[in-house]
Amino acid sequence: MKVTILTNGPGELWGWVRPVVSELRKRGHTISLWLLPCQFSSGHEREAASFLGVDKLEGPGSTAQTWRRVTAENTDKVIQLGGDVMFGLRMARAADVSFTVYSYRAAKKIPGANVLVAYPSQVGSVAGVEVIGDLVKDSLSMDVTPSASLQWSWPRLEGSPRILFLPGSRPAIRSAAFEWLCELRRELVSKIPDVRVRTLFSQFMPDKEFSLWRDAGLEPVRAGAGVAMREADYALTQPGTNNFELMHCGLPALVVAPEKFLKFVPVSGVLGMLASLPLVGLKLRRIAAMRIIDRWNGFISLPNRTANKKIISELYGNVSPADAARAIYRDLSSPETLAKIHSELLNMSGDSGAASRLCDIALNGGIRA
C-alpha cells in the first residue's frame, strides 16, 4: 500500500514519525511524508525528514498552498502525526481512504477518524479513542545503537553530577535562552564546583551556533536522546516532547518556563495574530499560557500532567537562573529524591511497540473519512 503521513514540528517528526516510518518499511509499504506549515518549526524539518528514507517528501509550504495540494495526493491510507487535522481529513476525504490521528490529547471528536493517544489520561471525554502507548519510547530505542554509543562518552566521576541542558529546537527560543543558561551554569558551579554540564542538540545544529555554545563553556554535543539521557544524572529542559524522553529514560529533571521567554513562544490562530501586537501582545500570551496551565491542574511538564501529580520538578513565571540553580541543587542533594523520581518515571513509561499498534489499526480497515 501507499501510506501518507502528515506531520509538523521537530518533536513530532523525530519522536513520532521516525518509528512509524521504520515500522511501515518493515511491512513493505510505500511512504509519502508531508511536512505541514508549523509555527513551532525549527527550520530543519525537511533536512531531518530526508534521513528517514521515505519515498516522497512534500513541504513545508504555505497554509494556502498546502490546503490546495493535499486533495491531489494519491494514497491508500492517511496517518496524521501532529499538525492541524483539517489537512489530513481533507486529504483522506479526497482520496476516499481511512484516516488515523495520533496525539497527546484527544481534545475533540474528529468525524471520520481513528483517534489514538499514548496514555489513558489523554483520552478526555471523547468517545472511541484508543490508547496505544507512546511513540517516543519506540523512537528512543532507535538511538541506542553501537554506532551512536561510540560517538558518546561521558564517564561518571565520583561526586561530579552530570547535568544535561536541553534548550530546544526552535532557534528564537534557543538564542534567547543562551545567556540565561550561561548564568545558570555559573550559579551551578558556585554551588557544585565539580558539576559537569553538557547541552544536547540535534545533528542539524548549525556549526556556527555550535561553536558559540562551546566557547561559552556549555559543552554542546550532537547525540541521540536515547543515548545522552541515559548517561546523565539530571536534566534541565522546557515543556515539550522531550519531557517524555526523560520519562522513558528515568532521568530526573527540572522543567522551566520563564515568563521572559513568552514573547518567543509561537501562538496559533487568531490569538496568535493578536499576540503579535505591541503592548497587549505579551499580556494575551500570559493569559493564554495560564489557561493552559490551569487546564492541566497547574502542571507544565508532560510527565506531571500525565500522572496528575508532581513527579519531576517544575518552575514557571518569574524564574531566574538562580531560582533554577537552587531547585536543581535541592534535588541533587537528596539521593533518595533522585531514586524516587527515577523509579516513578520508569513505572509510568509503559510498554514499547506503539508504532506497531498504530500501523495495525491504521492499515487494517479503520474508519473512512
Describe the overall structure.
By secondary structure, the protein is an alpha/beta fold. It has helices at 10-26, 45-49, 63-69, 85-95, 135-143, 146-150, 171-191, 207-215, 225-231, 242-249, 269-275, 280-295, 302-307, 321-332, 335-348, 354-363, and strands at 2-7, 30-35, 56-58, 77-81, 98-103, 114-117, 130-131, 162-165, 196-201, 220-222, 234-237, 253-258, 313-317. α4 (85-95) links the parallel β4 and β5 (98-103).
Label this structure with key terms.
Rossmann fold; 7-stranded parallel beta sheet; globular; 369 residues; alpha/beta
Morphology call: globular
Extended strand count: 13
Compute the number of helices. Answer: 16
Residues in β-strands, percent: 15-25%
CATH architecture of the largest domain: 3-Layer(aba) Sandwich
Radius of gyration: 21 Å
**CATH top-level class of the largest domain:** Alpha Beta
Count of distinct structural domains? 2
* Biggest sheet descriptor: 7 strands, parallel
pLDDT < 50 runs, ≥5 residues? 146-150, 269-275
CATH topology (fold) name of the largest domain: Rossmann fold
Helix content range of the residues, please?
40-55%
Task: Give the helix/strand class.
Answer: alpha/beta
| Sheet with most strands: strand arrangement | 3-2-1-4-5-6-7
- The succession of helices and strands, N to C, reads EHEHEHEHEEEHHEHEHEHEHEHHHEHHH
CATH-defined superfamily of the largest domain: Glycogen Phosphorylase B
Q: What is the average per-residue confidence, as pLDDT, rounded to a whole number?
A: 86
Oligomeric category? single chain
**What is the rounded distance between the termini?**
17 Å
